[in-house]
Every structure is written in structure tokens, then in C-alpha cells.
């Protein structure tokens, strides 16, 4: 969890359903999609935007099977690594395929909350 104080931009907590680390302001867990709050206004959903979305597919070939590891790395403006997570591992055999989709969802910070440098 983050060292950011509760109520500030970037503060995190554990999802009560799946225990994933999520933003304290989340009304729905992005990992398990469990509802956390039912008081979220419709304007929160309207303000949400996707500044990054990447999708790709890897296909098995006739030369044999191969293993893969999907790693998500987050870096700050100075190129320093601030987060690293293995999202999944597996194998692809001839005739099989795996699709990957990486999406960054964002919502503007409410007025009055401090912007913190990490």
C-alpha cells in the first residue's frame, strides 16, 4: 500500500473482495470488478478517460511451444521504476494464441486534494 495519507490523491487500500491494492477513491475494483461504494456519482464515470490502451496477440508457431511472462513496469518522469508487477505467465503451443490488453484508466483528482510527488 502507499505511504500517502488517506483522503489524498494516490492513496490506496486493499479491495475487500480480492485483496488487490486499489485506489482509495475507486467505486469498483478494477481487478475483480466488485462494487465498493454505491454513492459514486454518475459524473465520476463521465469524467473517467483512457489515456493509454495497447492490445496485441501472440500466436503459436509450427516450430514448437514457448513460454511467456507478462510484466507491467511503471516509471516516473525521470525514468525511475516506481512499480513492477508480473501480470501473468503461461505457454503457447502450436495452433494456440494469447491476446493481451493493457489499459490505463484515469479520473481527474477532486478539487482540494493535494498532488503528491512520488
TrEMBL record:
It comes from the Bacteria. This is Zinc ribbon domain-containing protein. It comes from Thermomonas beijingensis.
Amino acid at each position: 500500500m502507499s505511504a500517502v495519507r488517506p483522503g489524498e490523491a494516490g492513496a490506496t487500500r486493499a479491495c475487500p473482495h480480492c485483496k488487490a491494492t486499489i485506489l482509495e477513491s475507486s467505486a469498483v475494483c478494477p481487478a475483480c470488478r466488485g462494487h465498493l461504494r454505491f454513492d459514486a456519482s454518475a459524473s465520476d464515470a463521465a469524467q473517467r478517460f483512457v489515456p493509454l490502451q495497447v492490445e496485441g496477440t501472440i500466436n503459436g508457431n509450427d516450430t514448437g511451444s514457448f513460454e511467456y511472462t507478462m510484466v507491467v513496469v511503471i516509471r516516473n518522469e525521470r525514468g525511475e521504476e516506481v512499480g513492477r508487477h508480473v501480470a501473468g505467465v503461461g505457454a503457447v503451443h502450436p495452433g494456440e494464441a494469447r491476446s493481451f490488453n493493457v489499459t490505463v484508466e484515469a479520473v481527474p483528482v477532486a478539487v482540494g486534494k493535494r498532488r503528491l510527488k512520488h
